[in-house]
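User: Um, any thoughts?
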Amino acid sequence: MNFEELLKRPIDELTADQMQDILNHKRKLQNEKQEKERRDYEQERDNDMGELIALATEIQTKAALLKELTHTKMEKHQEKLNNYGMIRSNSKGGFSLMHSNKTVRIKRRRDTQPIWDERSTKALELIQAFLYDTVKKRDKDLFEMLIGFLVKNKKGDLDYASVMNLLSHETRFDDPRWKEGLRLLKQSYSNFLKGYQYDFEKQNTEGKFERIELNFSAL
């Protein structure tokens, strides 16, 4: 007797072995169903991932080519611009190229990182000693503002804008620790050029320039 016939029989007419056979058969069917679902899911997942990874790899290759080509051509036009006219310019900063139709442009920005060397440690010691010994007793609000300019980020680096704000108060005090601390802080500073960033822009229907987004998260 096959399982189809067994399934049609009333349960009280089945022997224990027959009931066990039916149970085993149902478990087998369930396992086969789950196994098929697993294979179908993994196949669809792998196909989708393969498509996305292939596209991402293609975009990465083209992005690298775009960056190299852009840098080469921008360097060429920067050199031509430096030689344009009767007096040579030696500008190495950012600049823009504007198309003749005025609807598209490419902007180059210097990607820099401020760095303070070991002299900044001594500078901070002197400045903080002065602020805690003198300013905190006289003007707590001023103290909180100035000491806040010395807070470092998660990487342990000083914030450039905060340091510039601190230096704007240079003439406020004549204490030797303050003067020497700010002098050392300025001497310890250097600006490291990491490279260049490029913005590709086009005019929208309102005549305003919009960036052509190449950053995945910005789309």
Q: What stands out?
A: The CA atoms of residues 44 and 50 lie 10 Å apart. The helical segments are 3-8, 16-82, 119-138, 140-148, 160-167, 176-187.
